[in-house]
């Protein structure tokens, strides 16, 4: 067990090292664009307010009536924050494909070395999965730190009287993206992570099917992906299908979704293990 | 002993291996010979569980290959299998992290023998030097069996001589070695066993020295008879 954990940690650290440049770039871009947003958006508001008050000779109160008071939500809904968050999600999604395919790419087929390591092959799977999750949580952590600092920056730039009084948590709670990807609401956050984990397990299985059976595997993988989506989404449509016979509470639907996602996740793990041990091809 | 028993392999509709069986003993250098596309690399991949076979089995000292047995058998493929941005030292450290059988002292010896600089990055090395690193990473493992796929491919004559010297040195002594190569001339004198493949089957299996002594034929002569006519 100790040996197992040691090699798993080694592999995870190794994969982490390989993702580090990409991850640092994502984190850097996120921080930089966020910072621009924290400064540029409130300054533009303050500039507009001042200009309006000067040109129209009105009071601050009248200007607020014209432009509205400023809230942190006005910053979080700009592209300066939405773009890096979206970039992070899509970047890691692409990296989830790259993390496997790079082993087979080019002249240096590192897949040989990985598959010939004297460790259970599922450790390769787990280390890649862990690294994707470490990257996701690093981005979340940096985003939280960034938002906390950003809130202070915005409060320092905009005069108190012009602020709406909305707190950071309130601003994030009404945000369509951050309320899901950040741990603002535990329900949404856990749901997003549960769906995300199941998605990753299915995606890795699809990749391994393709790596094992080539074009036929790609077809099988796509079919597997579609079937898992249908199974996972089934509880959502279930109340409509049985509305004349049975009424489902939301909690029952949620429990069914959790059970089905667990089944999909475990099935994906078992298929992946079989493929890695018996079917994978260099 | 590596025992390959009745393995069959198909790529699409093309049958590549059609019931191949042979054994590799410890302390014996064997060579798989055949024209391009005859399935030599596929056999090595199948032994290492890097490609599934349709039928048949491969055992290493009576056991089916499981990851722990990669401490017993090493494969040196015809491509660099370390990361290009790694230095040779980093590649050796990587091996040391995972293989119980990594012999750092022997690695140092081979590094010196090949006159390689441990701090050179693999991507900056010539093809010949990359092949040497590949050999180093395989030979520095204290394994009982070594498989090598085309160790002379695209390599200059001086490097070939060095690699041949490795074969005749203590580095492969007492190990079971299986090589595939087109450059049979370079190692013919070192071979114990030659396995000739044709049309997905073992066409002939013979002792190179015995063939020379009894029939006066070299391996190339036998190959010429089989493949040309």
Automatic annotation (TrEMBL), chain A:
The chain crosses the membrane at residues 21-40, 79-101, 130-158, 187-209, 221-238, 253-271. Keywords: Membrane, Transmembrane, Transmembrane helix. The keyword Metal-binding does not apply. It comes from the Bacteria. The keyword Membrane applies. Coiled coil: none annotated. This is ABC-2 family transporter protein. It comes from Alkalibacterium pelagium. The lineage of its organism: Bacteria, Bacillati, Bacillota, Bacilli, Lactobacillales.
Automatic annotation (TrEMBL), chain B:
InterPro entries: AAA+_ATPase, ABC_transporter-like_ATP-bd, ABC_transporter-like_CS, ABC_Transporter_VariousFunc, P-loop_NTPase. Keywords: ATP-binding, Nucleotide-binding, Transport. Residues 2-224 form the ABC transporter domain. One of its GO terms (molecular function) is ATP hydrolysis activity. This is ABC-2 type transport system ATP-binding protein.
